[in-house]
Fold this sequence. Notes:
The chain is α/β, with parallel strands linked by helices. It has a single domain (3-309), classed as Rossmann fold. The protein has twelve helices and five strands. It has a five-stranded parallel β-sheet, sandwiched between helices. The radius of gyration is 19 Å and the shape is globular. The protein starts with a helix and ends with a helix.
Amino acid sequence: MNFLAYQHFTLLIPFRRGTTLSVVLALCLLGSVVAEDRGKFEYPYAPYNRGSMEPQRTGWPLSEEERDYALKAEHDRRPGRESNQHMPAMWPVTPSAGFWGGSSWLDTHATLVHYVRANQGPIDVLLVGDSITQQWGSPLDKGVLNDAWKKHFANYKTINIGIGGDKIQNVLWRLDHGGVDGLEPRFVVVMIGNNNMFFTPETGIESVAKGVQVCVANIRDRFPKAEVIAVKILPAHAPGNRFYEDILKTNAAIDRLKLNSDPKVHVLDITGDFMSSDGALKKDLFTPDNIHLSLEGYAVYAERLKPLID
Protein backbone atom coordinates (compact mmCIF):
# COMPACT_ATOMS: atom_id res chain seq x y z
CA MET A 1 0.00 0.00 0.00
CA ASN A 2 1.46 3.38 -0.98
CA PHE A 3 1.92 6.29 1.46
CA LEU A 4 -1.26 8.15 0.55
CA ALA A 5 -3.34 5.00 0.53
CA TYR A 6 -2.15 4.33 4.07
CA GLN A 7 -3.11 7.86 5.07
CA HIS A 8 -6.63 7.25 3.76
CA PHE A 9 -7.03 4.49 6.33
CA THR A 10 -5.79 6.74 9.10
CA LEU A 11 -7.86 9.83 8.27
CA LEU A 12 -10.63 9.04 10.75
CA ILE A 13 -11.75 12.60 11.38
CA PRO A 14 -15.13 13.15 13.01
CA PHE A 15 -17.63 14.97 10.83
CA ARG A 16 -20.30 17.38 12.00
CA ARG A 17 -24.05 17.40 11.55
CA GLY A 18 -24.84 13.73 11.52
CA THR A 19 -22.17 12.28 9.26
CA THR A 20 -21.20 8.95 10.83
CA LEU A 21 -17.79 7.38 11.22
CA SER A 22 -18.85 4.61 8.84
CA VAL A 23 -19.35 7.20 6.12
CA VAL A 24 -15.88 8.57 6.78
CA LEU A 25 -14.43 5.06 6.58
CA ALA A 26 -16.25 4.41 3.32
CA LEU A 27 -14.88 7.59 1.77
CA CYS A 28 -11.37 6.88 3.00
CA LEU A 29 -11.38 3.26 1.85
CA LEU A 30 -12.71 4.26 -1.54
CA GLY A 31 -9.94 6.84 -1.78
CA SER A 32 -7.43 4.09 -1.00
CA VAL A 33 -8.73 1.87 -3.77
CA VAL A 34 -8.55 4.73 -6.25
CA ALA A 35 -5.00 5.52 -5.17
CA GLU A 36 -3.79 1.94 -5.61
CA ASP A 37 -5.61 1.43 -8.91
CA ARG A 38 -4.20 4.56 -10.50
CA GLY A 39 -0.77 4.56 -8.86
CA LYS A 40 -0.92 8.33 -8.50
CA PHE A 41 -1.08 10.82 -5.66
CA GLU A 42 -4.66 10.86 -4.42
CA TYR A 43 -6.52 12.79 -1.74
CA PRO A 44 -8.51 11.46 1.21
CA TYR A 45 -11.79 12.75 -0.23
CA ALA A 46 -12.63 10.16 -2.90
CA PRO A 47 -15.16 12.26 -4.90
CA TYR A 48 -12.38 14.76 -5.58
CA ASN A 49 -10.16 11.99 -6.94
CA ARG A 50 -12.93 10.77 -9.24
CA GLY A 51 -13.23 14.20 -10.81
CA SER A 52 -16.80 14.77 -9.72
CA MET A 53 -15.85 18.11 -8.17
CA GLU A 54 -12.91 19.74 -9.94
CA PRO A 55 -13.16 19.87 -13.76
CA GLN A 56 -9.35 19.94 -14.13
CA ARG A 57 -7.55 18.38 -11.19
CA THR A 58 -4.03 19.16 -12.38
CA GLY A 59 -2.08 21.26 -14.85
CA TRP A 60 -1.67 24.79 -16.12
CA PRO A 61 -3.00 26.73 -17.96
CA LEU A 62 -6.55 26.18 -16.83
CA SER A 63 -9.29 25.05 -19.12
CA GLU A 64 -12.20 27.47 -19.49
CA GLU A 65 -14.35 25.10 -17.43
CA GLU A 66 -11.79 24.93 -14.61
CA ARG A 67 -11.31 28.69 -14.58
CA ASP A 68 -15.06 29.24 -14.28
CA TYR A 69 -15.17 26.71 -11.44
CA ALA A 70 -12.18 28.27 -9.62
CA LEU A 71 -13.80 31.70 -9.80
CA LYS A 72 -16.74 30.58 -7.71
CA ALA A 73 -16.64 31.64 -4.07
CA GLU A 74 -14.62 29.12 -2.11
CA HIS A 75 -17.53 28.05 0.08
CA ASP A 76 -19.33 26.90 -3.10
CA ARG A 77 -16.47 24.49 -3.90
CA ARG A 78 -15.95 22.81 -0.53
CA PRO A 79 -16.07 19.01 -0.19
CA GLY A 80 -19.64 17.86 0.30
CA ARG A 81 -21.10 20.81 -1.53
CA GLU A 82 -21.55 18.69 -4.65
CA SER A 83 -23.84 16.35 -2.67
CA ASN A 84 -25.39 18.95 -0.34
CA GLN A 85 -23.49 17.67 2.69
CA HIS A 86 -21.52 19.61 5.27
CA MET A 87 -18.05 18.03 5.55
CA PRO A 88 -15.77 20.61 7.17
CA ALA A 89 -13.22 18.00 8.28
CA MET A 90 -12.41 17.43 4.60
CA TRP A 91 -11.74 21.11 3.80
CA PRO A 92 -8.06 21.22 4.81
CA VAL A 93 -7.19 17.96 3.01
CA THR A 94 -8.87 18.70 -0.32
CA PRO A 95 -7.38 21.13 -2.89
CA SER A 96 -9.26 24.36 -3.42
CA ALA A 97 -8.31 27.51 -5.30
CA GLY A 98 -8.27 30.59 -3.11
CA PHE A 99 -10.74 33.41 -3.62
CA TRP A 100 -10.39 37.11 -2.88
CA GLY A 101 -13.26 38.25 -5.10
CA GLY A 102 -13.05 38.29 -8.87
CA SER A 103 -9.89 36.82 -10.39
CA SER A 104 -7.32 38.43 -8.09
CA TRP A 105 -6.22 35.23 -6.32
CA LEU A 106 -5.96 33.34 -9.61
CA ASP A 107 -4.00 36.24 -11.12
CA THR A 108 -1.59 36.11 -8.16
CA HIS A 109 -1.11 32.39 -8.67
CA ALA A 110 -0.52 33.01 -12.38
CA THR A 111 2.23 35.52 -11.51
CA LEU A 112 3.99 32.87 -9.44
CA VAL A 113 3.56 30.23 -12.17
CA HIS A 114 5.27 32.60 -14.60
CA TYR A 115 8.05 33.18 -12.05
CA VAL A 116 8.56 29.44 -11.57
CA ARG A 117 8.64 28.82 -15.32
CA ALA A 118 11.38 31.44 -15.64
CA ASN A 119 13.46 29.52 -13.08
CA GLN A 120 13.13 25.93 -14.27
CA GLY A 121 15.54 23.21 -13.26
CA PRO A 122 17.75 22.75 -10.20
CA ILE A 123 17.33 25.16 -7.29
CA ASP A 124 18.53 25.00 -3.71
CA VAL A 125 15.45 26.01 -1.69
CA LEU A 126 11.74 26.15 -2.45
CA LEU A 127 9.67 28.12 0.08
CA VAL A 128 6.01 27.11 0.35
CA GLY A 129 3.34 28.71 2.52
CA ASP A 130 1.26 31.78 3.30
CA SER A 131 2.09 35.40 4.17
CA ILE A 132 4.80 34.45 6.68
CA THR A 133 6.56 32.67 3.82
CA GLN A 134 5.78 35.41 1.29
CA GLN A 135 7.42 37.97 3.55
CA TRP A 136 10.80 36.28 3.26
CA GLY A 137 10.78 38.28 0.03
CA SER A 138 8.72 37.53 -3.03
CA PRO A 139 8.18 38.38 -6.71
CA LEU A 140 4.73 39.47 -5.54
CA ASP A 141 6.36 42.30 -3.58
CA LYS A 142 9.81 43.84 -4.07
CA GLY A 143 11.18 40.76 -5.79
CA VAL A 144 14.14 40.35 -3.43
CA LEU A 145 14.61 38.16 -0.37
CA ASN A 146 14.83 39.96 2.95
CA ASP A 147 18.03 40.69 4.86
CA ALA A 148 17.59 37.78 7.26
CA TRP A 149 17.44 35.31 4.39
CA LYS A 150 20.33 36.92 2.52
CA LYS A 151 22.53 36.89 5.63
CA HIS A 152 22.40 33.11 5.90
CA PHE A 153 21.39 31.87 2.46
CA ALA A 154 22.65 34.42 -0.05
CA ASN A 155 24.43 31.72 -2.04
CA TYR A 156 21.38 29.48 -2.28
CA LYS A 157 19.11 29.76 -5.31
CA THR A 158 15.74 30.25 -3.63
CA ILE A 159 12.24 30.28 -5.10
CA ASN A 160 9.44 31.64 -2.91
CA ILE A 161 5.83 30.74 -3.76
CA GLY A 162 4.17 31.96 -0.56
CA ILE A 163 0.80 33.72 -0.92
CA GLY A 164 -0.64 35.75 1.93
CA GLY A 165 -3.94 34.43 3.24
CA ASP A 166 -3.50 30.92 1.87
CA LYS A 167 -4.87 27.95 3.75
CA ILE A 168 -3.57 24.40 3.38
CA GLN A 169 -6.16 23.55 0.73
CA ASN A 170 -5.08 26.55 -1.37
CA VAL A 171 -1.44 25.42 -1.32
CA LEU A 172 -2.51 21.91 -2.35
CA TRP A 173 -4.37 23.37 -5.32
CA ARG A 174 -1.37 25.47 -6.34
CA LEU A 175 0.99 22.50 -6.13
CA ASP A 176 -1.30 20.62 -8.51
CA HIS A 177 -1.91 23.49 -10.95
CA GLY A 178 1.51 24.52 -12.20
CA GLY A 179 2.77 26.07 -8.97
CA VAL A 180 6.03 24.12 -8.86
CA ASP A 181 6.21 22.39 -12.24
CA GLY A 182 9.72 22.08 -13.65
CA LEU A 183 11.55 22.88 -10.42
CA GLU A 184 14.14 20.51 -8.95
CA PRO A 185 14.69 21.69 -5.36
CA ARG A 186 17.24 20.28 -2.94
CA PHE A 187 15.20 21.54 0.01
CA VAL A 188 11.53 22.43 0.40
CA VAL A 189 10.60 24.53 3.43
CA VAL A 190 6.87 24.49 4.11
CA MET A 191 4.96 26.30 6.85
CA ILE A 192 1.20 26.34 6.44
CA GLY A 193 -1.94 26.18 8.58
CA ASN A 194 -2.12 29.56 10.31
CA ASN A 195 -5.09 30.73 8.23
CA ASN A 196 -6.89 27.43 8.81
CA MET A 197 -7.24 28.54 12.43
CA PHE A 198 -10.11 30.81 11.39
CA PHE A 199 -12.13 27.67 10.61
CA THR A 200 -11.18 25.26 13.40
CA PRO A 201 -14.54 25.71 15.19
CA GLU A 202 -15.97 23.86 12.17
CA THR A 203 -13.12 21.70 10.87
CA GLY A 204 -11.60 20.70 14.19
CA ILE A 205 -7.88 20.52 14.95
CA GLU A 206 -7.03 17.03 13.71
CA SER A 207 -8.09 17.79 10.15
CA VAL A 208 -5.70 20.74 9.99
CA ALA A 209 -2.82 18.54 11.14
CA LYS A 210 -3.86 15.97 8.53
CA GLY A 211 -3.84 18.76 5.95
CA VAL A 212 -0.22 19.54 6.81
CA GLN A 213 0.54 15.84 6.46
CA VAL A 214 -1.13 15.66 3.03
CA CYS A 215 0.74 18.80 1.92
CA VAL A 216 4.06 17.21 2.91
CA ALA A 217 3.05 13.99 1.14
CA ASN A 218 2.22 15.93 -2.04
CA ILE A 219 5.63 17.62 -1.95
CA ARG A 220 7.40 14.31 -1.30
CA ASP A 221 5.53 12.77 -4.24
CA ARG A 222 6.63 15.60 -6.54
CA PHE A 223 10.20 15.87 -5.31
CA PRO A 224 11.30 12.43 -4.07
CA LYS A 225 14.97 13.47 -3.88
CA ALA A 226 14.36 16.69 -1.91
CA GLU A 227 14.67 17.13 1.83
CA VAL A 228 11.42 18.55 3.19
CA ILE A 229 11.48 20.82 6.24
CA ALA A 230 7.99 21.04 7.73
CA VAL A 231 7.94 24.02 10.10
CA LYS A 232 5.28 23.97 12.78
CA ILE A 233 2.79 26.83 12.85
CA LEU A 234 4.17 29.85 14.66
CA PRO A 235 2.25 31.18 17.68
CA ALA A 236 -0.03 34.17 17.26
CA HIS A 237 -1.97 36.57 19.52
CA ALA A 238 -1.80 35.63 23.21
CA PRO A 239 -2.44 32.78 25.67
CA GLY A 240 -6.15 32.25 26.20
CA ASN A 241 -7.02 33.49 22.71
CA ARG A 242 -8.73 30.69 20.73
CA PHE A 243 -6.45 31.25 17.75
CA TYR A 244 -3.35 30.92 19.96
CA GLU A 245 -4.63 27.82 21.74
CA ASP A 246 -5.70 26.11 18.51
CA ILE A 247 -2.26 26.62 17.01
CA LEU A 248 -0.68 24.85 19.99
CA LYS A 249 -3.22 22.02 19.75
CA THR A 250 -2.63 21.67 16.00
CA ASN A 251 1.13 21.51 16.47
CA ALA A 252 0.63 18.78 19.08
CA ALA A 253 -1.56 16.89 16.59
CA ILE A 254 1.19 17.23 13.96
CA ASP A 255 3.60 15.61 16.43
CA ARG A 256 1.27 12.64 16.78
CA LEU A 257 1.39 12.06 13.01
CA LYS A 258 5.18 11.47 13.18
CA LEU A 259 5.93 13.08 9.83
CA ASN A 260 9.64 12.61 10.40
CA SER A 261 9.27 8.84 10.31
CA ASP A 262 10.07 9.52 6.65
CA PRO A 263 13.85 10.14 6.68
CA LYS A 264 13.44 12.85 4.04
CA VAL A 265 11.06 14.87 6.24
CA HIS A 266 12.37 17.05 9.05
CA VAL A 267 9.87 18.66 11.44
CA LEU A 268 11.17 21.97 12.76
CA ASP A 269 9.59 23.31 15.93
CA ILE A 270 10.61 26.92 16.52
CA THR A 271 7.55 27.97 18.53
CA GLY A 272 9.56 28.14 21.74
CA ASP A 273 11.93 30.69 20.18
CA PHE A 274 8.99 33.07 19.72
CA MET A 275 7.43 32.72 23.19
CA SER A 276 8.47 33.80 26.67
CA SER A 277 8.45 31.36 29.57
CA ASP A 278 4.86 32.35 30.39
CA GLY A 279 3.71 31.62 26.83
CA ALA A 280 3.37 35.26 25.77
CA LEU A 281 4.75 36.26 22.39
CA LYS A 282 8.16 37.90 22.27
CA LYS A 283 6.94 41.25 21.00
CA ASP A 284 10.18 42.24 19.27
CA LEU A 285 9.89 39.21 16.99
CA PHE A 286 6.42 40.15 15.72
CA THR A 287 4.76 43.04 13.95
CA PRO A 288 1.99 44.86 15.90
CA ASP A 289 -0.67 42.44 14.64
CA ASN A 290 0.96 39.64 16.72
CA ILE A 291 0.81 37.31 13.71
CA HIS A 292 3.47 38.35 11.21
CA LEU A 293 7.19 38.50 11.90
CA SER A 294 9.46 41.48 12.28
CA LEU A 295 12.89 41.42 10.66
CA GLU A 296 14.20 40.28 14.06
CA GLY A 297 11.71 37.43 13.93
CA TYR A 298 12.93 36.39 10.51
CA ALA A 299 16.51 36.49 11.83
CA VAL A 300 15.55 33.94 14.52
CA TYR A 301 13.70 31.81 11.96
CA ALA A 302 16.69 31.87 9.59
CA GLU A 303 19.11 30.91 12.36
CA ARG A 304 17.01 27.85 13.17
CA LEU A 305 16.76 26.84 9.50
CA LYS A 306 20.45 27.25 8.84
CA PRO A 307 21.75 24.03 10.46
CA LEU A 308 19.21 21.93 8.54
CA ILE A 309 19.90 23.56 5.18
CA ASP A 310 23.67 23.77 5.62
